Amino acid sequence: MADWIEVCEFDDIDEEDVVRFDAGDRTFAVYRDTDGGVWATDGLCTHEMVHLADGLVMDDTIECPKHNGRFNYQTGEALRAPVCVNLKTYPARIRDGIVEIEI
Ligand code: FES
């Protein structure tokens, strides 16, 4: 069964930015958009094992730092080669100023 778990304070993520979040042996990337929304995906690029929290957020996309592949971080859709496998996404929300994701 999925659980909501705390990631960080909302203010800890800059607007149009991403942070790394680890839980057990899993790793995630948690994003803040420009409209006050939060989003979560698997942390590692589906091309190679590179963490997307080191990548660049632009609008609703994340660009991988290694080969510049891109995903839509809201839908997980792979947008630009060399990535061709979509990224898994997770529900994210803000409660009392705390970002939570459901995993
Ligand atoms: S590792 Fe992400 S595009 Fe290659």
Automatic annotation (TrEMBL):
Signal peptide from the UniProt entry: none
> What cofactor is needed?
[2Fe-2S] cluster
> What Pfam families does the entry give?
Rieske
Q: Which residues form the Rieske domain?
A: 5-101
Q: Which GO molecular function annotation, any one, does this entry have?
A: 2 iron, 2 sulfur cluster binding
Entry keywords, A to Z: 2Fe-2S, Dioxygenase, Iron, Iron-sulfur, Metal-binding, Oxidoreductase
Q: Which SUPFAM superfamilies match?
A: ISP domain (SSF50022)
Recorded superkingdom? Bacteria
Q: Does the keyword Signal apply?
A: no
Q: Does the keyword Cell division apply?
A: no
What's the family? Answer: Belongs to the bacterial ring-hydroxylating dioxygenase ferredoxin component family.
- Name the PANTHER family for this protein: FERREDOXIN-RELATED, RIESKE DOMAIN-CONTAINING PROTEIN
Query: What is the name attached to this protein's record?
Result: Naphthalene 1,2-dioxygenase system ferredoxin subunit
* Gene name, Swiss-Prot/TrEMBL: ndoA_4
